[in-house]
Amino acid sequence: MKDLGNDLFNNQPAFAAILSALQEHRKPEVTGLSGVSKALFMRALGCQLNRPLLIVGEEEPSLKFYEDLLLFAGAQELDIFLDEEYGYLQLMEAIRNKTNYFCVASREALTQTVIPFAQYQKLYFSLSAGQTIPLEKL
Question: Do 57 and 107 meet the contact criterion of CB atoms below 8 Å apart?
């Protein structure tokens, strides 16, 4: 996927070191980015890693980051979860279906008490238009 973020970061040794650290499950520290450059950096990182990325922060900064990231990623590649009541389950569903490269979430949405994810997976099902299911299953 070719875009501005890839063009700016791909040939940078520091960016390659961060990618390598993430692929080796280490935790690199990134400093010095501000404003919209954070979103551009995360977009480039997401394109290179080719897996969903979860970005967590306080509610107000998360909303601003989401708006910045929309400049570089299409809406189909991006979701935001700020709702404390349903955010965690929506986030798990988005990652489970791998529908988004980027999930921006507030800490509040992620720290709510919900059923264990394994139990949620057992209970989860979806229906398509025209599909039927026995009432006993519900």
Answer: yes
The three-state secondary structure class of 24 is coil
pTM: 0.65
Q: How many CA atoms lie within 13 A of 116 on its CB side?
A: 3
Burial code of 74-108, b = ≥16 C-beta within 10 A, e = fewer?
eeebbbbbbbeeebbbbbbbbbeeeebbbbbbbeb
Selected residue with higher pLDDT from 116 and 84 = 116
The pair of three-digit structure tokens given for residue 125, joined into one six-digit string: 């099902």
- What six digits make up the tokens of 35? 């404003």
| Distance, CA of 16 to CA of 70 (rounded, Å) | 24
Burial (0-12, 13-18, 19+ Cβ within 10 Å), 44 = buried
For residue 37, which of 59, 80, 79, 8 has the smallest C-alpha distance?
8
Q: Read off the pLDDT of residues 47-71 as tens digits, 9 standing for 90 and up.
A: 888 777 888 888 778 888 888 888 8
